[in-house]
Write a structure and sequence with these properties.
This protein is α+β, with helices and mostly antiparallel strands. It has 5 helices and 11 strands; from the N terminus they run ααβαββββββββββαα. The strands form 3 sheets. Strands 2, 3, 4, 7, 8, 9 and 10 form a 7-stranded antiparallel sheet that branches. It has a two-stranded parallel sheet with strand order 1-11. Strands 5-6 form a two-stranded antiparallel sheet. A hairpin with a 2-residue loop joins strand 5 and strand 6.
Length: 194
């Protein structure tokens, strides 16, 4: 591995970087989260839209804080028209950018169905990172549907599952938003029963 890095470094120094970087490399692997675990680990589930973003250095990492307007509350502690800050890893500060594979990506003006949990820093985070964010799209019949994130990377089954557990992305992907919301609310009642 070190020899390979050395060759790439030498190529870059010699001005041959395009030759050294001629192929794509994918390195993101996430442990799949089950639908029940995603609901259980969340503090709220909402359809929300990022209204503004601020990226800051925290130690050696860049984090982006997005002010998210709750368009509709599906379950949990947030209500419609609430506004919360959601913290994600990665972003751009000045001329430096960091990309974190497998992280949720909130985009200003674009709504998402998101599973949120409180974090120790006071903002919310997306539960299970990109696996807890679902984009929205309108189908040919003008129905609003849910799409799982394409930024999850490779997904492996969690330890202790036999492959029959319902994975969150499989349960929600492609569903009409109102139908998915009903199933999430029902699962929420079971998972968060007093």
């Amino acid at each position: 591995m070190r020899a390979k890095r050395w060759v790439v470094l030498c190529a870059a120094l010699a001005g041959l970087a395009p030759l050294a970087a001629a192929r794509d490399v994918s390195a993101s692997v996430s442990v799949a989260i089950t639908f029940d675990a995603l609901v259980h680990e969340s503090s709220a589930v909402v359809v929300g839209t990022a209204a503004e973003q601020r990226s800051v250095w925290e130690g050696a990492r860049i984090y982006t804080y997005s002010r998210v307007h709750v368009d509709s509350a599906i379950a949990g502690e947030l209500g419609a028209d609430d506004e919360v800050w959601v913290r994600t890893m990665g972003g751009v500060v000045g001329k430096v950018g960091q990309i974190v594979e497998g992280e949720a990506e909130l985009t200003v003006g674009r709504p998402s169905l998101v599973f949120l949990r409180r974090s120790p820093v006071g903002a919310y985070v997306v539960t299970a990172r990109a696996q807890g964010q679902f984009g929205l799209y309108t189908d040919d019949q003008k129905q609003l549907r849910v799409r799982k994130s394409g930024g999850v990377g490779a997904v492996v089954l969690p330890n202790g599952t036999d492959g029959t557990a319902a994975l969150a992305g499989d349960v929600i992907h492609g569903r009409v938003v109102s139908d998915a919301a009903k199933d999430i609310a029902t699962a929420w009642s079971r998972a968060h029963a007093p």
